[in-house]
Amino acid sequence: MVEQTHAAHTSISRKAPLPAVSDLYNIDHLLSEEERMVRDTVRKFVRERVLPIIGTHFEAGTFPRELVSEIAALGLLGMHLEGYGCAGLSAVCYGLVCQELEAGDSGIRSFVSVQGSLAMYPIWAFGSDEQKEHWLPRMARGEAIGCFGLTEPDRGSDAAHMQTTARLDGDAYILNGTKMWITNGSIADVAVVWAQTSEGIRGFLVERGTPGFSTSNIHQKLSLRASVTSELHFSDCRVPVQNMLPNVLGMRGPLSCLNEARYGIAWGVTGAARTCYETALEYAKTRIQFGRPIAGFQLVQNKLVIMATELVKAQLLALQLGRLKDEGLMHPVQISLAKRNNVREALHTAREARSVLGANGITLEYPIIRHMNNLESVFTYEGTDDIHTLIIGQAITGENAFS
Predict the structure, then answer these.
(1) Would you call 17 helix, strand, or coil by DSSP?
(2) Has residue 4 got a pLDDT over 60?
(3) How far apart are CA 110 and CA 268, in angstroms?
(4) How many CB atoms lie within 10 A of CB 326?
(5) Mean pLDDT score of the chain, rounded to an integer?
(6) Are 312 and 25 spatial neighbours (Cβ–Cβ below 8 Å)?
(7) Domains of the chain from N-terminus onward
(8) What is the mean pLDDT of residues 37-65?
(9) Residue from 66, 102, 382, 399 carrying the catalytic annotation
């Protein structure tokens, strides 16, 4: 009986093709034809347009703004929103796009995430008809760039106690305060800014050139170097009443935006992890030491197996999250679980991959150190690892550890 069972198992195994080294669980089979087409289109774009230039931009600390029009032409800006020139594609399609963009560089995915999930989404979800008509079509075409102003120098995770204020004065609100670590800040045509009012926290659309509104870039970054990171400064900045987002009050507004962005991150980091794993695998097959490829040594194989396993787990977690989102069943705790796990494992993968390459792993000749540095920022933004831990902890215990 044991021999028959073993023979049957062997026969079944031989019928199945050897899985791809980057898709050991044949996740591709779980995707629809449309989802694969979207993924492959963006993967081709990244290979042909992003990878040839991203290392140079990372080293120089510059954002490849020349790619914005091409990204817009692919329909990726606000692609998960309906109407106003947006593609209206599924959450899974959007996640796959984030995965492929971040396989190129976290900075490129961050640009698309901020534009679509943090700037366009609040206008789409909470804006007036006039605000939507004015901004969303232009932003979808890449003609107007947006940013999201929530984090402050002294208020990171504790955003509910933000110090930026908006005081009603006749037909305008007077904004005062500073926002920090703002992606796209100095190149944005409109900033979605959250501030304390007499009613509670409100969102405002602050246009570039408004008196009292200025930006300054954050320099000397060793992470997300191919991305614009800025401070927003408001000094008696007069914003017309009609620029307030009318349909949301309180932290529900910014938190709903963060959930949209965190969803994209959970997918995006799987792309960075995949690139690091594939690079380490190829290097290990060709790097000869002690008369043989280092891929033949047990310690190296152990590292590669862990990378491959965690990549599969992260991709499956992201895919199920996307399916839940498309069915309207996704809960914020599930986003926190995916963001926390996938970023952790992507960062671990990048570090292990760098060790496989040895000294070569620290040069921009290979993409690993760039991804590793970028992931240090992703580990922190859109909710730190600690914050997501407490969100999940509260959900499973019923106890609030935040205060």
Answers:
(1) coil
(2) no
(3) 9
(4) 16
(5) 94
(6) yes
(7) 27-140 (1.10.540.10), 146-243 (2.40.110.10), 254-397 (1.20.140.10)
(8) 97
(9) 382
